[in-house]
RNA sequence: UACCCCGUGGUGUAACGGUAACACAACAGGUUUUGGUCCUGUCGUUCAUGGUUCGAAUCCAUGCGGGGUAACCA
């Protein structure tokens, strides 16, 4: 605390984690002159998902907290799977999440330098051209328990290697015919050190370098050196790269580079009821199980955005889950709660009836005949925009003789703890009046089609002068003023909490590839039409989030809205303790 | 069967050798013009066994359990 540099305590009461401690330690030790430079290094072969958000928040957060910087670097060393569409979406998503990269780079920017360094390695006798075809190369590498054998091409002279490597680059050999490998140790217990491949011959159009190259560096050869080139101080990656760290460091040492970034590994995010691997997400998209990368059921950032998530909620979530080395699975409700917490404070409240049932107030006064003919009596009542935020102010909503209420808010026969409308029961219509149910009508199928009530004129605004209590408060929409809309409600994409876990049905061996698809939830989307909204919603803008009172948080989906029929996407429902009570009463019987 | 990493309540994280904390979930209450929000309470002898120490979740050893690693993917 005596350190005058410790000025960053104020807003960030965030709990520390092992990565931050590491960085702090390096900083106090004066490593890299106390400088902090991180990077977020996605491969442009898919859309970013919530797991990437964890990494983004870590990398950019670190930079922000330590007065450093953070780059966005595309790890585009494998042209066969990469695409500009992904480059664009990744940049959009990072910005949307709320981070502005200090530098924008591509590993492909370093191809020439990487090549020069490979030549240096050859000259030092630390790399060689290997003619082993793929299958044999694999054989020579040995197994997890058996050491590998030296390639027969391992002893080639530097001159020969230089010449062959030049011919590789010149395109004299077919794809896959030769590789450039580091000469390390074929008997190493660490597979990554068994003469790893640095370059492979691959004729594919690269999204940035076109057909300029027919040899491409591998991840291992490109990543650490790219870090070094940018002056990255802390190269943060996920656990599966732990075994790569010795190689990462071997390259930097072999090249005698002065700047030595520190690789630090953390556990990637796993989420219940979701799948978080680009390969699997790509499959969901390609096979049409979802409508696209931005399907509101997808855990992609574009999907969550469309769903109605806010960047703030995502950042809050990332802050709450922390960072560690333990492989864990975070409960989806954690994500949902982060959104609720954010939107509870910020989202304007509005009344929306999703599944309407008509209510008629029998003793409502006749209106004076007016321009609109019949002349129904209408009152404009004041409603609070956000009880959590007085500065959000109030609005007025029209109230008349005919109203819409939620179908599930009325029951012809109901248990005692059903506080809503039932024959003889009095409830409050929010911000309006107390009404008592006097009767109802049913349709041919016996379902309620209309509810009759009488109102108490003394309860205007929703308070009774005699202080009598009503348990239930219902939302409503004036039938004469209602806006028509659709609502899309989504459930989890998977019905299993752990869709990736193999379903050991007694079968031996690996589960069928794509087993996770078997757990897809067939009812993950439901679209309601004929929803009734209060008239103020005519001003709703795309991506604007609202709380539909007693329902949940919704946002206007511009993409699927049609003229005169806006579509509202439910981001997350409100907690529903009544549903819980009912479930419990049904279950234990 | 090799090497690396990890193991704190239902879940996710904290405690940096000095009497286990926070969030979420669950459960029980309270407040409430959203069965929302908010508030209160309940829920763990830190995988096991030994060792070091006045003192161990923290250090050491062994065992057990989990994850990663045998792409010319990243």
Q: Keywords for this structure?
A:
RNA-binding, elongated, alpha/beta, 7-stranded mixed β-sheet
Please provide a brief summary of the model.
The chain is of the alpha/beta class and 589 residues long. It has helices at residues 18-28, 50-65, 84-97, 111-123, 134-140, 158-170, 219-230, 245-254, 278-286, 301-307, 311-321, 332-346, 577-586; strands at residues 37-40, 69-74, 103-106, 127-130, 179-182, 197-201, 215-217, 234-238, 262-266, 349-350, 352-353, 356-361, 379-384, 394-399, 402-406, 426-429, 434-442, 448-456, 473-474, 477-478, 483-490, 525-533, 545-548, 552-556, 567-573. The protein has three domains: 4-271, HUPs (Rossmann fold, 3-Layer(aba) Sandwich); 272-346 and 483-533 and 540-584, Ribosomal Protein L25, Chain P (Beta Barrel), CATH 2.40.240.10; 351-482, Ribosomal Protein L25, Chain P (Beta Barrel), CATH 2.40.240.
Mean pLDDT, all residues:
93
Number of helices: 13
The portion of residues assigned to helices is: 25-40%
Name of the CATH first level of the largest domain: Alpha Beta
* C-alpha termini separation: 60 Å
Give me the CATH fold name of the largest domain.
Answer: Rossmann fold
Unreliable residue stretches: 1-12, 504-511
């Amino acid at each position: 605390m005596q350190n005058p540099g410790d000025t960053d305590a104020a807003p960030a009461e965030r709990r520390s984690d092992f990565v931050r401690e590491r960085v702090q330690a390096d900083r106090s030790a004066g490593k890299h002159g106390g400088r902090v430079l991180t990077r977020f290094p996605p491969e442009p072969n898919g859309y970013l998902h919530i797991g990437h958000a964890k990494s983004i928040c870590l990398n950019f957060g670190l930079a922000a907290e330590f007065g450093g910087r953070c780059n966005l670097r595309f790890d585009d060393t494998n042209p066969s799977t990469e695409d500009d569409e992904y480059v664009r979406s990744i940049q959009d998503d990072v910005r949307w999440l709320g981070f502005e990269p200090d530098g924008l780079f591509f590993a492909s920017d370093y191809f020439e330098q990487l090549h020069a360094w490979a030549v240096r390695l050859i000259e030092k006798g630390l790399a060689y051209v290997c003619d082993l075809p793929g299958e044999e190369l694999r054989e020579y590498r040995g197994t997890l328990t058996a050491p590998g054998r030296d390639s027969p091409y391992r002893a080639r002279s530097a001159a020969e290697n230089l010449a062959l490597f030049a011919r590789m680059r010149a395109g004299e050999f077919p794809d896959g015919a030769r590789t450039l490998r580091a000469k390390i140790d074929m008997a190493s217990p660490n597979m990554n050190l068994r003469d790893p491949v640095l370059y492979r011959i691959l004729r594919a159009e690269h999204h940035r370098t076109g057909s300029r190259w027919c040899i491409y560096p591998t991840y291992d050869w490109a990543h650490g050196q790219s870090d070094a080139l940018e002056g990255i101080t802390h190269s943060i990656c996920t656990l599966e790269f732990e075994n790569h760290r010795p190689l990462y460091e071997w390259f930097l040492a072999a090249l005698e580079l002065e700047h030595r970034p520190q690789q630090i590994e953390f556990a990637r995010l796993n989420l219940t009821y979701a799948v978080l691997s680009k390969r699997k997400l790509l499959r969901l998209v390609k096979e049409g199980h979802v409508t696209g990368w931005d399907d509101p059921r997808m855990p992609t950032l574009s999907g969550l955005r469309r769903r109605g998530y806010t960047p703030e909620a995502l950042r809050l979530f990332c802050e709450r889950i922390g960072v560690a080395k333990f492989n864990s699975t975070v409960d989806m409700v954690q994500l949902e709660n982060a959104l609720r917490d954010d939107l509870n404070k910020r989202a304007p409240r509005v009344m929306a009836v999703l599944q309407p049932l008509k209510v008629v107030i029998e003793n409502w006064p006749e209106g004076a005949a007016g321009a609109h003919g019949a002349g129904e009596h209408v009152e404009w009542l004041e409603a609070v925009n956000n009880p959590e935020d007085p500065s959000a102010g109030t609005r007025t909503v029209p109230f008349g003789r005919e109203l819409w209420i939620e179908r599930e808010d009325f029951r012809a026969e109901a248990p005692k703890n059903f506080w809503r409308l039932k024959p003889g029961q009095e409830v409050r219509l929010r911000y309006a009046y107390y009404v008592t149910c006097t009767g109802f009508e049913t349709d041919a199928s016996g379902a309620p089609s209309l509810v009759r009530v009488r109102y108490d004129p003394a309860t205007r605004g929703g308070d009774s002068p005699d202080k009598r209590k009503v348990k239930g408060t219902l939302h409503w929409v004036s039938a004469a003023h209602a806006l028509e809309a659709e609502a899309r409600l989504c459930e989890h994409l998977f019905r299993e909490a752990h869709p990736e876990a193999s379903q050991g049905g007694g079968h031996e061996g690996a589960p069928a590839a794509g087993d996770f698809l078997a757990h897809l939830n067939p009812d993950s989307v439901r679209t309601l039409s004929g929803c009734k909204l209060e008239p103020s919603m005519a001003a709703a803008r795309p991506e604007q989030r609202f709380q539909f009172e007693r329902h949940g948080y919704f946002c206007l989906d511009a993409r699927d809205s049609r003229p005169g029929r806006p579509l509202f996407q439910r981001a997350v429902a409100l907690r529903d303790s009544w549903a819980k009570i009912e479930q419990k009463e049904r279950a234990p019987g």
